Amino acid sequence: MKNTLMIFLTVICLAAGINACALKSMLMPGPEPEVLEKDQLPYKVAIVPFVNQTSNPEAGSIVRKMFYNFFSSLNYLDLEPFVIDDNLKRNELYQAIVSGDAVSAARLGQLLGVDAIIFGEVTSLGKTYALVYSDNSAGLKARMVRCDSNRVIWELEHDIHIQEGDVPLSLTGLAATIVKTAITHQKASHLQAAAELCMQMVATIPDREGITEPPPKIIVLVHNAGGKLLRPGDLLKVAMIGEKGQKASWSIPPLVSNLPLKEKEPGVYIGAYRIRNKDRLPHGRIIGYLQSKTGTGSQWVDTLGPIKIGAPTVLPSKITKNTVLTAAKSPYLVEDALVILPGAKLTVQPGTVIWFQNLGLIVKGELQINGTKTEPVRLASLGAGGWKGIFLDKTKNDIHINHCQISDAEYGLRVTETTVNLQNCLFQNNVWGIVIEQSKVEIHHTLVRASGKIGIAARQAQLLVKDSVITENGAGGFILEKSKASIEQNNIVNNGNWAIKVADTTSKVKAGHNWWGVEDPEQTEIIGQFKIRPILEKPIKFKIDS
User: Which of 98, 302, 348, 546 has minimal Cβ neighbours within 10 Å of its Cβ?
Assistant: First the structure.
């Protein structure tokens, strides 16, 4: 506990040195909203799920939670997001709202028991590449609508850009610095952009006159469970930063509630919980509460991602016979490397989660991943350092991977002398997305984003990529060498140095009918001799769930 406290207090001490800059930043003119009705403001408000128009499958959830966290400090009574979502799912309206279908405020008000609804549409969240720099952007369209009259009370469209490497100057920038002790730099940058955006937008919402003093403000809540599994006996540590001299607590629904937080320094509240043998929570959340002496309060819903609690099913180092992994025994843990030997088959059923502590999955036999749209298979790192990824090594069997999400690996998928069919997959936050050597690979309706280096690399390979999105990959989207590739009907946008690079003159590449996101892709997006025309005039429709 001492080490965690020292990290937080060190950052707090740094705040003194940037106070003047922070004040200057907060006094800069903010966005100008359209406020159509200031009188007779509603009392009870629901922030329904935001529509996600970005390629980041987490964007809608992240921005909505951040918006809710800042909104909770206003003088409205707001419903917690998970209460809203449960109600909408029971009444079969959740999917309609996240898809952007028209659902009346009157119907939602009657269903949720509120006076007004806040609708939102996330237009950007992630890294944007320009010619000489990159930055993190966040954009949102939002409006508050009365349920009784369908009148718009407040409406605003706003976006921000934080240039890579900028020194954090505002309170949320300071909070993002603290968050970096718990999660990756990339996700921290996204959270900082979302926090800045939502803080500025919420500040323009007309507030009710409070009967008592305004609720105390929370700046951030962080914990030590990001990207880790907490087993029985482990200590979950939490720190919340907000107004000083308040009563602070936190909960882990449904495991425990109202755990006290102690104010170790002014405005810095610290707490811990030791995991019990019976505790099990594969996708849990943390909520922090701050309450004044008069009873007014605000709360913060964790934005770092679901926490993982409980004893996993540990897999052996070798699969020697046909084996099936199921969601019922999930999550599974691979402590070292997992090798599927020749003659053995590993089948992974819908909803299964596999965590890798150090190395990865080596396939010399047969692999079949059978995720579904509602229950994808997830393979990810359990530690902060990432894992090696999936290696398909000269297997004689065709490999089929469907509705699978692979993240935080050195290689999301590395294929050598193997035939592979990928359908409806997500490769996110890997160093290399997909690397193919002397293999035949088909990729359909798949998102490859935010790779540190290349999205898809192929050497001496046959490659088909269709109905997919390749975006936000640091060095470039594709790199091809001595390969035959058909790359059509895709969105290939916002990649670092190029969209497609063909490194030789012998490759045969068809790259027509793609959306490039720029007027003249031949000038900026391609390297090498190949045809990209005809060019799509608008992006393909693409949706993948997080």
Answer: 546
